[in-house]
Write a structure and sequence with these properties.
Helix content: 25-40%
Number of strands: 23
Structural class: alpha/beta
Strand content: 25-35%
Strand order of the largest sheet: 5-2-1-9-19
């Protein structure tokens, strides 16, 4: 019996489970590991913060998906890997062996990247931890005005700042600390322009400085200024899970799993990886849920082919992708390559795509 372990219930692994439900793998025991009973779809979190969705609308229960796929669901987190021995170490000190391993756990936020943030800030990821924090923050804001600062000028930070502004109103000052970079620095100039316009329209203060320290009542900035804040919300870029170091897997310079065209580890053929935890030197792409979703079907196919002893197929991520950024009210910025626009119609498009993705896995009777 081949032991296939799916580590993480990320976007790509949802597609793998869907494929296994439709066509089970003979002679294979599938185990899905995730510390959370549900996946909160990241694309809908800005809408949740803005009040357009409730938590149930954004969440996909994991256990029913695993059951339909004939997989055993193990609510656990990995904290170590010995690739040569093909064994995972779990947070509760158990070990789990595998014949084939697929990793889709996403990136993590380095809680020590900014001094004081671990003690005094709220981190947007993991989203499953952020949602209870958000509910408490909302209750506080309804009792008395707060001063909030979002740290991170990428898509997550911009969407969060605009969602907070829409939900909490003018009595709550919102500042966006971009880390010394331009707003939406990884995006084309036209998208950056729309982003700046949305932030200005909603009177979000943009501070193009680094945050050097977080304390209980302020942020210290790289220019020596102190920014008064009742709470900092950290939405910086993701880092590789630290436990991958020492696993024996080939990693890129950032510590992410180095993979090739077949989504296999470049050092261990029996290990596959997709989503934000994976890196491809031959096809570098931004870490985005868009690419994780697209990687799901080729990952499912190559896992099946590897276990059955068939030739694997190469997969190359698309050079361009459709990006939709929520701007607080029911509007969105849509971009495709160097072309971008903004409007309520873009929000309706985004809403339809997001709801469709979540409902596919909630309602699929396979």
């Amino acid at each position: 019996m081949t032991q296939l372990v799916l580590l993480g219930a990320g976007h790509a692994h949802l597609q793998v489970l869907h494929a296994l439900a439709a066509d089970p793998l003979a002679g294979t025991q599938v185990t899905l590991l995730s510390p959370y009973p549900q996946l909160v779809y990241s694309g809908m979190v800005p809408g949740l913060v803005a009040g357009h969705y409730d938590a149930a609308a954004c969440s996909i229960p994991i256990a029913p998906l695993a059951e339909r796929a004939g997989a055993a669901f193990m609510p656990a987190a990995a904290v170590g890997l010995d690739a040569s021995a093909r064994r995972l170490r779990l947070a509760d000190d158990r070990e789990l062996g595998y014949d084939v391993l697929s990793v889709d756990i996403g990136a993590v936020m380095n809680r020590d990247a900014i001094p004081g943030a671990r003690e005094h800030a709220a981190f947007v990821r993991p989203i499953e931890h952020f949602l209870p924090l958000w509910e408490g923050l909302l209750a506080r804001a309804e009792r008395a005005p707060l001063r909030l600062a979002v740290v991170g000028g990428g898509a997550a930070g911009v969407e969060l700042a605009l969602a907070l502004r829409y939900r909490l109103g003018e009595r709550t000052p919102i500042s966006l600390v971009t880390g010394g970079l331009a707003v939406l620095a990884a995006y084309p100039a036209v998208v950056r322009w729309f982003g700046r316009r949305a932030l200005a329209r909603h009177r979000v203060e943009v501070i193009p400085e680094t945050c050097t320290q977080v304390t209980a009542d302020c942020l210290h900035l790289g220019n020596g200024r102190s920014l008064p804040s009742d709470l900092a919300l950290v939405a910086i870029g993701g880092s590789a899970p630290g436990w991958l170091t020492g696993s024996g897997l080939a990693l890129d310079e950032g510590g992410f799993i180095a993979t090739g065209p077949t989504l296999q580890s470049t050092s261990h053929a029996e290990v596959f990886a997709a989503g934000d935890v994976a890196s491809r030197a031959d096809a570098p792409r931004p870490r985005s849920g868009v690419y994780a979703v697209r990687a799901g079907p080729p990952l499912a196919l190559n896992l099946r082919r590897f276990i059955e002893g068939a030739a694997l197929r190469s997969y190359r991520p698309q050079a361009r992708s459709l990006n939709l950024l929520a701007t607080g009210e029911q509007r969105a910025i849509v971009s495709w390559g160097l072309v971008a626009a903004e409007g309520r119609w873009a929000w309706r498009w985004k809403d339809r795509i997001d709801r469709g993705f979540v409902n596919r896995f909630k309602l699929d009777p396979a």
